[in-house]
Amino acid sequence: xxxxxxxxxxxxxxxxxxxxxxxxxxxxxxxxxxxxxxxxxxxxxxxxxxxxxxxxxxxxxxxxxxxxxxxxxxxxxxxxxxxxxxxxxxx
Length: 91
Prior knowledge:
single chain; 91 residues; alpha+beta; Alpha-Beta Plaits; 3-stranded antiparallel β-sheet; two-stranded antiparallel ribbon; 5 strands; 29% strand
């Protein structure tokens, strides 16, 4: 997968999966969740993946580990939000 600035180039193991992915992502989404995700993502350093507490809770027992990135105010969204950085896999 590669970012192309305003898009993404992805490789699939078959054309059917590529078409299904294209169909799944063609719909526009909106709402507070979109704004929250963008605000969390915009604070990430290059190569870093940041998520909210909600995501951490939803993937519990998945084997994905996180490092606490602290509480932050997010522009246009009330309150403070705890963010977490996806920890690198053990080597």
